């Protein structure tokens, strides 16, 4: 069985849109394309290579596929040669041409298509970008490993790594490194259900009991 892994550039507030440049993905009025570039150095490049691994096929959403297909076939560096050689499994409808070599369209329900692909023998499936694919697969509990390259900036708006449909799950930190520019590279592996506990008093005060009763009937308004 294959594993599904991510290697994602994210801001402190979880935005992952257009890390590579201003023209990469300005949709929705996003104004900060290229926010990764000022922090990139040799160490981060090495950590990114390690996060991606040496043996994988790509699992991509339509937008990321189109960005990659317009760039990587024309690059003759190590990443370009790898991306051009591996299989690309793409969540895209029939209107999206798949002209990049070794590209395969995922048909039907995305979660079910990926579940079936995951059950086959082969290389790990590496997700690059593709926020909507990540959302769908987190909701279906299909992602085995998250590598987050977290940059010390807040972008405020844009496509995000997590959404409200992500299935609650605990993750174990498998490794972590930090660059001089403050980028934290952490790899997390699945660790079962979300553990909970309490720092509450075993003998709560009358005021605390009153608060609990009031909030229990207030619904989401209690959040303020």
The averaged pLDDT comes out at: 93
Order of helices and strands: EHEHHEEHEHEEEH
Question: Terminal Cα separation, in Å?
Answer: 45 Å
Beta fraction: 15-25%
- Secondary structure tally: strands: 8
| Global outline | globular
Q: Tell me about the biggest sheet?
A: 8 strands, mixed
Radius of gyration: 20 Å
Structural class: alpha/beta
Strand order of the largest sheet: 4-3-2-5-1-6-8-7
Low-confidence stretches: none
Write down the oligomeric state: single chain
The total count of helices amounts to 6
* Portion of residues within helices: 25-40%
Which secondary structure elements does this structure contain, and how are they paired or packed?
Elements: E1 4-11, H1 42-52, E2 56-61, H2 62-69, H3 78-85, E3 88-91, E4 103-105, H4 110-118, E5 124-127, H5 131-139, E6 145-151, E7 171-178, E8 184-190, H6 206-218
Parallel strand pairs: 1-5, 1-6, 2-3, 2-5, 3-4
Antiparallel strand pairs: 6-8, 7-8
Task: Give the key terms.
224 residues, alpha/beta, 26% helix
